[in-house]
Write a sequence for this structure.
């Protein structure tokens, strides 16, 4: 069951393709432990694309950030050290024929909203690309369903 309190995790990663798998598995663990197992598949896809773009198309370190804000907003983002804006995403229907450039098309297709903004903090520059999965809806905690109907006397 999703939690009613907000939380956030950040995973700082080197510019290494192995970081994509490490990020994906870490995200799965975080979401599972917080009762968001229903969001794992789409969240893994989105995080994989964002982190893969960060380590493939930039130099230097990167980071994955995952944030939950009740009643039902999951935001997934990747930071990288390149301040240049991302290329505008191709339409998903046209992305299948491309050898590159499908990552943000998938993000655009699988997220309700996405965006990016430049970052400059403590002498570090870069950008943060984020998205909120389409499966994220306001989720009210549900009481447990009884195994048997209550008996009346």
């Amino acid at each position: 069951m999703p939690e009613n309190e907000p939380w956030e995790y950040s995973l700082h990663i080197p510019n290494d393709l192995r970081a994509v798998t490490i990020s994906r598995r870490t995200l799965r663990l975080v979401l599972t432990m917080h009762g968001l197992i229903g969001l794992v598949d789409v969240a893994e896809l989105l995080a994989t694309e964002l982190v893969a773009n960060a380590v493939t198309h930039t130099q230097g370190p990167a980071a994955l950030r995952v944030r939950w804000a009740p009643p039902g907003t999951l935001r997934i983002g990747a930071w990288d050290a390149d301040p240049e804006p991302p290329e505008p995403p191709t339409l998903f229907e046209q992305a299948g024929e491309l050898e590159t450039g499908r990552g943000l098309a998938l993000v655009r297709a699988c997220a309700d909203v996405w965006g990016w903004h430049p970052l400059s903090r403590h002498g570090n520059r870069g950008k943060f690309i984020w998205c909120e999965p389409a499966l994220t809806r306001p989720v009210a905690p549900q009481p447990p369903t009884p195994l048997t109907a209550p008996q009346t006397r």
Strands lie at 7-13, 62-69, 73-80, 111-121, 124-133. The domain at 7-133 is CATH 3.30.565.10 (Heat Shock Protein 90).
